[in-house]
Amino acid sequence: MPAFSRRTFMLAATALGAMTFAGAALAEVPALAKKDTYKVGFAQTESNNPWRIAQTNSMKAEAEKRGYQLVYTDAAGSAAKQVADVNSMIAQGVDVIFLAPREEKPLIPAVMAAKKAGIPVILLDRSVDPSLAKAGEDYLTFIGSDFIQEGQRVAEWLAKNANGKSKIIELEGTTGSSPANDRKKGFDEAITAAGGFEIVASQTGDFARDKGRQVAESLLQAHPDADIIYAHNDEMAIGAISAIEAAGKVPGKDILVLSIDGGKEAVQAVVDGKIAAVVECNPRFGPKAFDTMAAYANGDKIEGKLVNDDKFYDSTNAAAELANAY
Ligand code: GYE
């Protein structure tokens, strides 16, 4: 190799290295070109409940409506698989990745890998650890509910309507997930502030029906005086109803059950008097997710957090709202 070309090669290599380094350290979210159509990734966390299925359907319907190609993956409840799913989307050269991160910390490498590959990430429904990745920097934005407020709304309903019931079993969502962390924080703080209540046990049921049933069963045995169950989602609340009935007690009478999500089965349980109240967590993400992506490609400024509106169901409106529940 002649000396000059070798030197040129080495300079180029050094420059490339520096660029890669600078690229990785860039403070901005990768840009998104304005195009007629896109190849978009949606990394779902699991599909074990009506909420997830409603969310997936909403994303698929909206992609189809716009004529975009959707690369869909389901991590089946494994954060490790979800990281691999995102890496495979990066390898397939998607334009944008919609990510519903199962847990706050384990999905950080996926967010960072997409950023490094120049692909903007939009977080859907769950967030990542804010001390490790930032909106407007490492990912574009978070679209979802205000989970702290959801927990507070349950506590506020109890403060007004518990009628002397006071001993609470809390069924937490997936450990390390943002909705579990925040639904606990919002509820625990508000119920403590309300006064007169006691959380006698708080344990994870992993947002799953059968796990919720099992955990409720053992906690009801350990705390036979418990008269309220607050579940971080409908699935665990429905599991808890089975546990209450198996213990020979009447849900809605002996034990008040409260939950978050607002799927049809839970709203029906409110109509039937088995669930006292449900805070809706809106799963219909499609239109907002794709509108946000289009706005970004258009050069609009995107806020770091886009909060969905959630309804609230109790005996006063459940029958009338049932038809609108997902
Ligand atoms: O409440 C639950 C789902 O992340 C907000 O995850 C979502 C929660 C939802 O599996 O049912």
How would you describe this structure to a colleague?
Helix content is 44%, strand content 17%. With 326 residues, it is α/β, with parallel strands linked by helices. The chain has two domains: 39-144 and 283-309, Rossmann fold (3-Layer(aba) Sandwich); 147-281, 3-Layer(aba) Sandwich (Rossmann fold), CATH 3.40.50.2300. The strands form two sheets. The chain has a six-stranded parallel β-sheet, sandwiched between helices. Keywords: Signal. Belongs to the bacterial solute-binding protein 2 family. It is found in: Cell envelope.
> Which of globular, elongated, flat, extended, rod-shaped describes the shape?
elongated
Q: What is the overall pLDDT average?
A: 93
**CATH topology-level name of the largest domain:** Rossmann fold
Overall strand count: 12
Count of spatially separate domains: 2
- The CATH superfamily of the largest domain bears the name Response regulator
User: How would a crystallographer describe the biggest sheet?
Assistant: 6 strands, parallel
Ends: how far apart? Answer: 68 Å
State the CATH architecture of the largest domain.
3-Layer(aba) Sandwich
InterPro entries: Peripla_BP_I, SBP_2_dom, TAT_signal
Keywords: Signal
Organism: Pararhizobium capsulatum DSM 1112
Signal peptide: 1-27
